[in-house]
Amino acid sequence: QYLLTIRINNAASLLETTDYGLSEISTIVGYEDPLYFSRLFRKIKGVSPRDYRKLIHSNQKEQSTHGGNEV
């Protein structure tokens, strides 16, 4: 369970900071099968890797639009 959490958190970081594809990220964090990786990611994070990346990028755009200064 600990190793799984570490791998998924590393994958989340890669999704946030790189433009790597899901198959590249799954291989980097130690999963040969991108579909299996996606299932595990969804189980831990509650969203698919693709949706996670969309959420992160939309939040970053929203913060940059508002200057990141929320009241």
Class from secondary-structure proportions: mainly alpha
3D shape: elongated
Contiguous helical run count: 4
State the distance separating the first and last CA atoms: 38 Å
Radius of gyration: 13 Å
Query: How do the SSEs run, as a string of H and E?
Result: HHHH
- How much of the sequence is in beta strands? under 5%
Compute the number of strand runs.
Answer: 0
Structural descriptors:
71 residues; mainly alpha; 73% helix
Structure description:
The protein is mostly helical. Helix content is 73%, strand content 0%. It is built from four helices and no strands.
Topology:
Elements: H1 2-17, H2 22-28, H3 34-45, H4 49-65
Helix pairs in contact: 1-3, 1-4
Question: Brief description of this entry?
Answer:
This protein is mainly alpha-helical.
